[in-house]
Amino acid sequence: MSFLSSLMNALPGAAAQGLAWGIMAIGVYITFRILDVADLTVDGSLATGGAVCVMLIRGGFNPWLALLCAMLAGMLAGFITGLFHTRCGIPAILAGILTQLALYSINLRIMGSKANQALSVDKYPLLLSQRYVRELSLKNPLPLLLIFTVAVIAALYWFFGTEKGSSLRATGANPNMARAQGINTNSNIVLGLMLSNGLVALSGALLAQYQGSSDINMGRGAIVIGLAAVIIGEVIFGKVFMNFGLKLFAVSIGAIIYYIVLQIVLQLGLNTNDLKLITALIVAVFLAIPYWKSKMFRHKVQPQSAKNGGNGHA
Q: Which residues, at least 6 apart from 203, have a Cβ–Cβ distance to it below 8 Å?
C-alpha cells in the first residue's frame, strides 16, 4: 500500500518532467527520424537553454523573453553544428560532439564560471515550479507544459506542411532525389539542426525554471532520454498514430511513459546511483521490442507458409 501511495505522489512530477523532456524529444525526432542525422549537440544545447534562461531571469529579464533567448541560443548551437557538417565536411555525429564539447566551456561562461546557478521561485517570477506540481491551482506547472507541448506540435505540423518543410522532409527521406529536384540539401540540414536544437534549448529553459536551477551537467545523457521517448512512442503508438502531428504527440507521451517507468523502478527501492544503468536497460528493452515482435511474427508465418506449400504440392 505504501508503494502505491508513494508512486501516486510521484506521478505528477513524472508527468511534468515527461512533458518538459518531451519537447526535447520532439527536437531529437526532427534530426533522428525526419533528417536522418545523428546529432549529439543535444547534451550541450539543453544545458545552454537552461543557463541562458536562468541568468537572464536572475538579471531581471521577463521569463517569457528568457525562454525566447534560450531557444535562439539553442538554434545558434544547431547552426554551428550544421556549418561544421555541411561547410567543413565533418561527419554529422562528430560535428555534434565538437559543438557539445565547445558548449561546455560556453555554458560555464554564461553561468559566471559556476557549475550551478539557483533560481528560487520565492525571489523570481518563474512561469513554472515543481513546488506546485501536486497543487490543484493555476500555479501547477502541468497545464502550462501541456500548452507548450500542444503549441510546439501545432507549429511543427504547420511548418512541415509548407513548401520549405516538405523540402526538409524530402532531404531526410532521399537526399539524392531532393538534390535532383533542385533542393539545397545543405541549407535544409542546417535549418533542421537549428530547429531541433532550438526546441532542445527551450526544453532546457523550461526544466531550469521547473527545478529552480541550471546545472552544467543537466544535459548529460539527454540524447538517450530523447531517443528513448522516440522509440517508446513508436513502439506503443506506431500503428495507431499515422498522422504526422499525432506521431509528434506520441513522442511526448513516450517521454511521460519513460519517466513513469523510471519512477516505478525507483519506488521498488533500487539505488539512485544505478539511475544511468536503469535508463540504459529501459531504452534497450524498448529498442529490442520491435525486433522481438518481428522475429515472433516470422516464426508464426513460416510454419503456416510451409503448411500451405505442402498442401499445394499434394
A: 20, 21, 22, 23, 24, 27, 46, 49
